[in-house]
Amino acid sequence: MAKGDFLGEFELCVLLAVSHLGDNAYGLAIRQTIARRSGRETAIGAVYATLGRLQSKALVTFTLSAPEPVAGGRARKCFTVTASGQRALQHSTSMLTRMLAGWAPKPRRSS
Questions:
Q1: Residue 87 domain-assigned (yes or no)
Q2: pTM (two decimals)
Q3: Is residue 102 part of a domain?
Q4: Residue 27 domain-assigned (yes or no)
Q5: Domain containing residue 42
Q6: Mapping DSSP to helix (H, G, I), strand (E, B) and coil, where does residue 62 land?
Q7: Using one digit for the tens of pLDDT, what is the confidence trace for 28-75?
Q8: Other Cβ atoms within 10 Å of 71 Cβ, number
Q9: Which of 8, 54, 62, 86 could disulfide-pair with 77, CB 3.0 to 4.6 Å?
Q10: CA distances (Å), 33 to each of 23, 70, 75, in order?
Q11: What is the rounded CA–CA span in Å between residue 39 and residue 28?
Q12: CB-based contacts of 24: which residues, under 8 Å, 6+ apart?
């Protein structure tokens, strides 16, 4: 993979959240999934900025849902991981697995 093809930590989190959510992968659900699974609270703007980067790298695409069935209901951008995105996930998670093999945290010394 070229240097620009590697995923950053938050890009990996967003891509994994989109993958986990399937057809329900829209901004707020992605943000909530990241918070629930990682314990990391993020701004919705950071999620959308990252989705934009992932889209420009052709790792995700989106479709617009039907508007919500409430007064003033809006359509949602629902994201999907592309085949290239799946390959990037496979590459990144395999690399992390190899890097973690044999690693263990060192016990803390008491003071």
A1: yes
A2: 0.84
A3: no
A4: yes
A5: 3-66+74-94
A6: strand
A7: 999 999 999 999 999 999 999 999 999 999 999 999 987 777 777 788
A8: 5
A9: 62
A10: 14, 24, 20
A11: 15
A12: 78
